[in-house]
Amino acid sequence: MDMIINKMPSPTWNWLKVNQSSLNADILSESAVSFSKPESVLYESVQNSELSEISTGLGEDFSKLINSKDLTIHRFSVAKGVKIDEILRIDFNFDMEKKSAGIIEFDIEPGASLKVIMDYSLSNNGIDGGFGAVQTRVRLCENASLHIIQVQRMEGNFTFVNDLGSINKDSSDFNITKLLLGGKNTYDGISIDLKGHESKFLTEVGYLVKGDDRLDINYLSRHHGIKTQSDIEVKGVLKDRAFKIFRGTIDIVQGAVNAGGRETEEVLLIDDDVINKSIPVILCGEEDVEGAHGATIGKLDDELLFYMKSRGISEKEIYEIMAKARIEELCQKIGDRLTVDRIHELTGGVSYEEF
Fold first, then answer.
1. Whole-prediction pTM value?
2. Residues 66-80: tens digit of each pLDDT
3. Residue 354 contacts by C-beta under 8 Å, 6 or more apart in sequence?
4. How far apart are the first and last CA of the chain?
5. For residues 112 and 287, what is the distance between their CA atoms, to the nearest angstrom?
6. Cβ(163)–Cβ(57) under 8 Å?
7. Given 6, 190, 226, 275, which is the most exposed site by the fewest CB atoms within 10 A?
8. Angle between helices 302-309 and 315-334 in degrees, nearest 10
9. In the beta sheet, which residues pair with residue 119?
10. What is the pLDDT of residue 294?
């Protein structure tokens, strides 16, 4: 299927070639998924769901594809007022030789809270490449909170699609932490609908793109409710001949009085052959709001380089240290030993005990 994905809600000049991306892919099987859940988390597998109508970051074409395949929907819910301290862990293990996908749903009822770790990895290596996708749908009810941590640990000739959409009601609090650490082609999309008054959304993302890999990101936070807040923070490292595009849009619609949105991106360019495109956008249909956006792109400060070189550290080592430091910054916010150790196994970072 030929799809238009990661389409910006408000296009810019066509000649810049950043408004959208295209993808040709099919889904032939269900991905291997396992999970360990706290007792208070309710689980069911279903074939149809009302949450399939939620808008997601990749867009309509991808949703049509994944909904046409009769995939099992893994649905997790937390009952009203139940606050869960234990972590729900969901592991996806993709096969390099297959084209597979999975669907996850979270339904968090009023006053409930949950923390989730979603880990994506490959089970084998292959030269032909494969395709994997996960679509995550969220309904966050009044005064509920949800923290999703997604870790992508893939290397080699593999295309991965990570799609998410949510509806957030009054006074809800939704946090997303992402680490994107590999894959030949990665397409990452988020669409957040802040329907409820005083609902909040925060996403913190770290990425490392190297070799000839490509990372394509599209995040949208749409404000409907009064006093809604969103914060998009992205930090990443590009090396070798890597390509990355980041589209970040905060859309404050008419009626979202006293809403506030902020988005920032910091990109560290290690090599001269990398390609970076950053498009931070704020759309505003209401007067009484606050918004800020920006991107910092470049190499390390000359004074910092001089300081570290004067202590016997080579320039190559300095850039490697700074690249790992950006990953470690998010690792310390995960708070789960197994997940952090898996990340360090891939990146060569310090052990969990050394934090």
1. 0.93
2. 999 999 999 999 999
3. none
4. 46
5. 33
6. yes
7. 275
8. 100
9. 91, 151
10. 82
